[in-house]
Specification:
This protein has 124 residues and is mainly alpha-helical. It contains two helices and no strands. The protein is rod-shaped, with a radius of gyration of 52 Å.
């Protein structure tokens, strides 16, 4: 064989090897591109799920009572409790007054009955 033939054969072998490697590289790049697309779709799906969850939390948080509202309710409740305590105290004072009157009336009535009883026995 002459040297030109050997060089041509070597060159052809090198070109075939380059084509094989080029095809393998293209296949690898296509596989990587497909994997990247799939990963991006999965990530997009997860982000959508996270956004839905965030929206759910936000809408749920909007239904909660605020600190200001609690303080207002607490203040109005305290005022109502104080008013009720004053009314209760007034009722207790009124009750004790009525009890004192009742004791006085029952004492007077008992005295009147005793006096009537004594008078009846005397005049009989």
């Amino acid at each position: 064989m002459d040297i030109r033939t050997e060089i041509t054969e070597l060159r052809d072998l090198i070109y075939r090897e380059m084509e094989i490697r080029h095809s393998a590289n293209e296949a690898r790049h296509e596989a990587q591109d497909k994997a990247l697309v799939v990963a991006a779709e999965v990530l997009q799906h997860r982000l959508e799920g996270m956004n839905q969850f965030r929206e759910t939390l936000t809408s749920q948080a909007n239904t909660f009572i605020t600190r200001e509202e609690i303080q207002l309710l607490r203040g109005s409740t305290s005022a109502k409790v104080e008013a009720l305590a004053k009314q209760l105290q007034a009722l207790e004072v009124s009750q004790s007054s009525l009890q004192a009157r009742l004791y006085t009336v029952s004492g007077l009535l008992g005295g009147a009955i005793a006096i009537t009883s004594v008078l009846l026995t005397l005049f009989r």
